[in-house]
Amino acid sequence: MQAMAGWEFWTVAGGLAVAVVAILAGAMRRVQTQAADSAASNLAVYRDQLAEIERDLARGTIDPDEASRLRAEIGKRVIEADRARTAAPAVGMSGSAYRLGLGLILGLGLPGTLAVYWGLGAPGYPDMELGPRLAELDAGMAGRPAQDAMLQTLGRARDAGLDQRLQAELQAASDPEALRSRYRVAFEAGRMQEAVRLQQRLLEVLGDAAGSNDQANLALALVAEANGYVSPEAETALRASLKADMGNELSRYLVGEMFLQGGRFDQAFRFWRPIAEGGMPGSPWVKSIRERIEEVADLAGIRYALPATAAAPAGPTAAAPAGPTAADMAAAGTMAPKDRQAMIEGMVAQLSDRLATDGGSVEEWNQLIRSLAVLQRLQEAQKIYDEAKVKFAGRPSELSFLRLAAVETGLIP
Question: How far is CA 353 from the centre of its chain?
Fold first, then answer.
């Protein structure tokens, strides 16, 4: 059916192309002499007027002198009309110009159109509405390979002997801090199978006390083990992490990567935008997101420009790899929750103080509102938003930008 649909498309497209070429060729071939035609029409009128003069002279309604004067006047007009007809330029093309124009259409126009379609279109792809297309992508994500299957495909299958040794060794491990420390060492050393098993054991020890960062670190180890692939097992850990803390930036970063791999660019943009505009400065995932979010938005069909204050730094750092290194992710991802919280709160306090004393751009007010929302300080975020509305009163574009931040963070706009 798809092959037939392809033939039908190309048949219709070819027929339309031939019709367009025929119309253009006919238009170029037509040589109209609008001025000459007008002059010829005037000559016919003048001939009728001369005949009328002769009839009037024969009937005696005019005398010979009047007839001579009228003939002379009309004769001047005849001469002028004949000159105009002779000198009138042709509206059209000469034979050589016609052949050149037709050659350009056939040689450049049609191949150029085909090249543009080949780059922007989807030859052979069946017609599909947006809803079914998204449903197909979601079905593909739901059926993607599990962690072990992907490791087999990558030629990095887990070592069964190492698994047995780790299982026996970790049965007696019950100190969460010791397990976290061992996880960090294994991750930074690139021993991903060991890092995965250590983090799984940590989650067993913690049980319901496991936090968002603990789940995020398991997902991180699974993703690193599979060369960046976000498996269903990693997705499960990410869901648990975001259930505990929807603002966990590492988890949101990895969820965005998962959606990118599944072709759901719209969902990736939704998870990444808050981090791109108000993420924790210096975090490797924030840098990666800022470098790519405009391209992701474009793939999702969303018009978006990264705010100036959130733009990726220029210079040598702009040429950095698209994604953070394993060491960067391990260092930030395993930061103690209280340390991370203290760092964020310190930055929020500095920004709040500066805006209160010196003022700032709408992007900075937006960042402060979103940061307070991430910290679950919604009352303060609402107060800052209300202050920002007063500050930017009468400036519709800025107010619209702030309103979007309020809506997305659950404030009263």
Answer: 36
